[in-house]
Structures are given as C-alpha cells and as structure tokens.
Amino acid sequence: MILYCMSKDGLFVERVYIIPKKEIDIRKHITITKNLSKNYFPWFNKYRFTDKEEIKKINRIWKEILEGRPFQNS
User: Fold this and answer.
1) pLDDT tens, position by position, 19-39
2) 74 occurs within a structural domain
3) How far apart are CA 21 and CA 62, in angstroms?
4) Residue 52 belongs to what domain range?
5) Structurally, how many domains does the chain consist of?
6) Contact assessment for residue 19 and residue 44, using Cβ atoms and an 8 Å cutoff
7) Is residue 32 part of a domain?
8) 28 secondary structure, DSSP code
C-alpha cells in the first residue's frame, strides 16, 4: 500500500509511505500523524519513503493533475 500524506491545503505531497501487505494484514486500521513526540518511533516510520528527488517528482506530477494537464513522464 502506498500512502501519501498531503499538506493541509492539498497542494503538496509531504510524505510517502510504502507499507508491505504483511503489515496491512495484521492491522485493523492505520493512523499516521505528522507531529509525534521525540521519544516515540511508530512502526510505520521504517516504511517512510525518504528520497527527496523522487518526492519532488511526485509533487510535479500532483501539480499537473491539479491543473488538469496530462503529466510528462521525465
């Protein structure tokens, strides 16, 4: 499962998580929050996608979707 965490205004993808099926199968629900205490490391953080360049590409595609343009795969 791929989860996209959006900005409040819905204009930007802030975080991406790629969670394997084995994790999904053992849970009844998934709640991901942005502001966590410093001493709390939730199970889902190990699945956070952190490649900043790829997230920039995701946001370029998202912007094109919002503008109603077909995205350019580059």
Assistant:
1) 999 999 999 888 888 776 666
2) no
3) 25
4) 2-66
5) 1
6) yes
7) yes
8) S
For residues 16 and 55, is the Cβ–Cβ distance under 8 A?
yes
Sign of the CA dihedral running 10, 3, 58, 46: positive
> In the numeric block, which tokens belong to residue 37?
């205490």
DSSP letter, residue 68 = T
Cα of 3 vs its chain's centroid, Å = 5
Q: How far apart are CA 66 and CA 70, in angstroms?
A: 10
For the record, the structure tokens of 2 come out as: 């791929």
Structure tokens at 42: 């939730």
Q: For 37-50, how does the pLDDT look when each residue is reduced to its tens digit (9 = 90+)?
A: 666 778 888 999 99
**Is the distance from CB of 55 to CB of 49 less than 8 angstroms?**
yes
Residue whose tokens read 């791929």? 2
Residue 71 lies in a domain: no
